[in-house]
């Protein structure tokens, strides 16, 4: 397949899995000393990557949690953030200014900071209490490797809280992801190429998702189509589609529907039933289309975000090639002062 190195992809995912033992030790230590709440904090893509973790916590745990955009956290100064809080964040470069500021602010209050980075020693790691690095991580594999570690962190907190009986099955599934996700990319490649060929010149897309793939919906619309391809998009939660966005439906509108296997899937099904009555430009990306060899049926919904990410990487790559617009090209982001 074009656009990425399979050997490096597997190596990066294996490294994320290798970090789990250290993650467990860190979380166990935090739990032994006690904590009050979890803050999942990010900027842009890393903010969206925390979304599936918040959904896992919401549906499987009683641990208090907060999901925050880094820059807003620093300005808003949430009253529940303090010395008994644990902040979990990520930055591949470790130089994202807003995330660094949030980590420094959290530490100034006595909170513990856990960071996922490309390389230890970066500015973010210098203001973190626990750092987990993955030196060969890149934009080709960033989301999946962060998901593995994010999920491992949250799952360990839940297990130590006497919750999440699915822990062992879930961790077993995460450890199978190098083979599983490589298979997903291979199976998705032809469909992604067909979509990219059909839509390389489409000027606007409506991206609709829900549940634990809402973060992927948001991220693909903003970080890929807008940031990396300069294509106008709107990401809309399926539960909100019928409260305004419905009026944007017409025969020329392109819809991408992102389907997981969790409890909220009927929300996207409802949107699909409606939009198919009014336009032929409907693309469904569905994690159910993939076998996921070795993953227990009961935990398939929990790994849907990783599957969706692997699927969408193929779409991103083929769009960039057919549009002759490299995914690394930027006009403004980290190019000019703002």
Automatic annotation (TrEMBL):
GO MF: carbohydrate derivative binding; glutamine-fructose-6-phosphate transaminase (isomerizing) activity
Any matching Pfam family: SIS
GO biological-process terms attached to the record: fructose 6-phosphate metabolic process; protein N-linked glycosylation; UDP-N-acetylglucosamine metabolic process
Domain SIS intervals: 26-163
InterPro entries for the chain: FrlB_SIS, Fructosamine_deglycase_FrlB, SIS_dom, SIS_dom_sf
CDD domains in UniProt: SIS_1
Domain of life: Bacteria
Protein name: SIS domain-containing protein
């Amino acid at each position: 397949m074009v656009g990425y190195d399979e050997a490096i992809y597997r190596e990066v995912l294996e490294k994320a899995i290798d970090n789990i033992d250290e993650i467990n030790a860190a979380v166990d230590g935090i739990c032994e000393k006690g904590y009050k709440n979890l803050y999942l904090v990010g900027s842009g893509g890393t903010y969206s990557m925390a979304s599936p973790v918040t959904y896992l916590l919401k549906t499987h745990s009683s641990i208090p949690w907060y999901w925050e955009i880094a820059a807003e956290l620093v300005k808003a100064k949430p009253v529940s953030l303090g010395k008994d809080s644990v902040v979990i964040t990520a930055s591949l470069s470790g130089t994202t200014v807003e995330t660094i500021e949030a980590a420094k602010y959290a530490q100034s209050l006595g909170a513990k900071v856990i960071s996922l980075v490309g390389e230890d020693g970066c500015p973010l790691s210098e203001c973190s209490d626990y750092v987990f690095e993955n030196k060969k991580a890149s934009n080709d594999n960033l989301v999946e490797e962060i998901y593995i570690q994010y999920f491992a962190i949250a799952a360990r907190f839940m297990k130590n809280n006497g919750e999440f009986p699915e822990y062992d099955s879930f961790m077993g599934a995460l450890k199978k992801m190098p083979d599983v996700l490589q298979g997903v990319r291979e199976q998705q490649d032809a469909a992604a190429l067909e979509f990219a060929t059909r839509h390389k010149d489409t000027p606007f897309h409506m991206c609709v998702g829900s549940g634990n793939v809402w973060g992927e919906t948001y991220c693909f619309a903003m970080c890929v189509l807008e940031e990396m391809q300069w294509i106008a998009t709107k990401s809309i939660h399926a539960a909100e589609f019928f409260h305004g966005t419905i009026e944007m439906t017409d025969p020329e509108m392109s819809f991408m529907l992102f389907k997981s296997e969790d409890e909220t899937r009927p929300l996207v099904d409802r949107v699909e039933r409606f939009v198919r009555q009014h336009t032929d430009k409907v693309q469904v990306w569905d994690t159910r289309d993939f076998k996921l060899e070795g993953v227990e049926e009961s935990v398939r919904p929990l790994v849907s975000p990783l599957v969706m990410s692997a699927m969408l990487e193929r779409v991103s790559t083929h769009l960039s090639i057919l549009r002759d617009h490299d995914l690394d090209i930027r006009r403004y982001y980290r190019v000019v002062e703002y």
